[in-house]
């Protein structure tokens, strides 16, 4: 019998980096400008052990679907948001790695040389571009939280915020050959979006996006047109769906085809029509992470995709 060959694209990585925190807490430094975050009583809710288990189960489910997971432990108490590694580094086809400048001071401690060394050891890394020195000038660009990348059409979608500096964005796009597409977005209360990836996700053949959050009609239409020109089916999300992290999802390449990793909360708020559109291209993989979502991020934030060629 001939082996079934599933289509692969550079948009959907087959491997990810995850961080399992041993002393997880909700980060007080990010509460002011993260409207998705909930301040929790870390001690009474036993959140550290709950978050540890949520990461463990997510890792197991991803591996069951053929995703290679590089799991790193965080045993410190200094990095409450370490479970979200996609903000401090990203990887790109051709062997490129970027390291980013972070806005919250305590998040800068999340950068780990052992992760970069693992990438160099197991994947073909040609260069590492380190933008973290821009922090000295109060210039920030928080990785694939600040940017949602169309790896196929080479477009970097980015919401204006204090986490996305236009100078750093232009520099990244010049180095990594992306076209920047910047816009303003806010929730129904007029609160600006802090990270682009809470309202937008790009798969190989579709894009989930909170168009209702882009108030400038002309800019909204330009973004839709750009996505459609790149062959994407645009799937609009409502304010309520964005608030339930439906935009914070990541397409991955599994052994049996592409999957869309998202939280169970996010999957539950999608309509059947939206699910049907997604599943024309990727199977939904809901993951239970209610504790971690209190920190204002969801599944996409937990997964740093590896877009590098393996050494073996």
Structural topology:
Blueprint: E1 15-21, H1 47-64, E2 68-74, E3 89-92, E4 96-99, H2 113-122, E5 127-130, H3 143-146, E6 147-150, E7 155-159, H4 166-176, E8 179-183, E9 200-202, E10 206-209, H5 217-229, E11 233-236, H6 239-243, E12 250-254, E13 257-263, H7 264-269, H8 272-278, E14 283-287, H9 290-293, H10 299-302, E15 304-305
Pfam families: DDAH_eukar
Protein name: Arginine deiminase-related protein
InterPro entries: Amdntrnsf_FN0238
Features:
single chain, 312 residues, alpha/beta, L-arginine/glycine Amidinotransferase, Chain A, 3-stranded mixed sheet, 10 helices, 15 strands, globular, disordered N terminus
Rough shape?
globular
Count of helical segments? 10
Helix content: 25-40%
- Uncertain segments are 1-6
- What is the terminal separation in angstroms? 26 Å
Which oligomeric form is depicted? Answer: single chain
Q: How many beta-strand elements?
A: 15
CATH first level: which class?
Alpha Beta
- Rg over C-alpha atoms, rounded to the nearest angstrom: 18 Å
Beta-strand content bin: 15-25%
Biggest pleated sheet: 3 strands, mixed
- Count of domain modules: 1
Mean of pLDDT:
92
In the CATH hierarchy, the architecture is 5-stranded Propeller
Q: Can you identify the CATH superfamily?
A: L-arginine/glycine Amidinotransferase, Chain A
Order of helices and strands: EHEEEHEHEEHEEEHEHEEHHEHHE
Notes on the protein architecture:
This protein has 312 residues and is of the alpha/beta class. It has one domain (15-305): L-arginine/glycine Amidinotransferase, Chain A (5-stranded Propeller). The chain has ten helices and 15 strands. It has helices at residues 47-64, 113-122, 143-146, 166-176, 217-229, 239-243, 264-269, 272-278, 290-293, 299-302; strands at 15-21, 68-74, 89-92, 96-99, 127-130, 147-150, 155-159, 179-183, 200-202, 206-209, 233-236, 250-254, 257-263, 283-287, 304-305. A three-stranded mixed beta sheet has the order 2-1-15. A three-stranded mixed beta sheet has the order 3-4-5, with no helix packed on it. The protein is globular, with a radius of gyration of 18 Å. It comes from Sessilibacter corallicola. This is Arginine deiminase-related protein.
